[in-house]
Amino acid sequence: MKLVWSPETASKAYIDTVESCQNFKESGVAEFLSAVAAGWNSKLIVESWSYGGSIATSVGLAIAARHTCGRHVCIVPDERLRSGYIKAMQEAGMSSTVMIVGEAEEVMEGLAGVDFLVVDSKRKDFARVLRFAKLGQKGAVLAIKNACHRGISGFRWHGVLERGTRIVRSVFLPVGKGLDIAHIGANGGVWAPQRVLVVGSGTSINNQGRNMFLEAKFCVLVEL
User: Fold this and answer.
1) Contact present, 105 and 81 (Cβ < 8 Å)
2) Burial of residue 71 (number of CB atoms within 10 Å: 0-12, 13-18, 19+)
3) DSSP letters of the chain?
4) Angle between helix 27-39 and 56-68 (nearest 10)
5) What is the pLDDT of residues 164-217, one digit of tens each?
6) Is residue 218 predicted with pLDDT exceeding 80?
């Protein structure tokens, strides 16, 4: 089996995230990730949050989990960040996210079957979160936020993932401060690429020929 793309679910999550993240500066990233996570029907959505980071992505992922009847889990390294995160999510009207505090190796060990994983390159341990992730048998989508950050110069997916992980495709997108996305294939399966139109600071999801988009300065069609 493999992850199956649903443009209808992606569109619904996208629209809900647009409405929920109107006041956030990082809304373009949130909308895109929400749509992709929901579109692939991700049941276990995990993210690592960094201090001072925008809560918009978390809101978007929580919305995606709601549409897929899945779980949204956020991992933070200490209690101080946990308290800050919970407060920010409550102010955004979100309360269903599961919080886990701990080091990357310890936390990821207990999260088997990850379908969608988002890490922030501003976190020093982002590569370790990727390395210790226990991905689902149907495949997975991995995303790095703030990929233009100088801390990941020379970054290579094969250099951080577990040996033998089958990377079907990877793509860098000019969304926010850069999104680096990799698709991990199912065991014995074939990944079917889907076209998504990324529009400037926002995104457009193709839903049976109907495009929904935000005003922006550029656009690029990518296969995911």
Assistant:
1) no
2) middle
3) ------HHHHHHHHHHHHHHTTT-TTHHHHHHHHHHHHHTT-SEEEEE--TT--SHHHHHHHHHHHHHT-EEEEEESSHHHHHHHHHHHHHTT---PEEEES-HHHHHHT-EEESEEEEETTSTTHHHHHHT-EE-TT-EEEEEESTTSGGGTT--HHHHSPTT--EEEEEEE-STT-EEEEEEPPTT------EEEEETTEEEEEETTEEE----S-EEEEE-
4) 20
5) 889 999 999 988 889 999 999 986 444 455 555 444 444 444 444 333 333 333
6) no
Spatial separation of the C-alpha atoms in residues 52 and 44, rounded to whole Å: 24
β-bridge pairing 167-173 and 112-114: unpaired
Q: In the predicted model, what is the mean pLDDT of the chain?
A: 81
Distance CA(82)–CA(98), nearest Å, equals 11
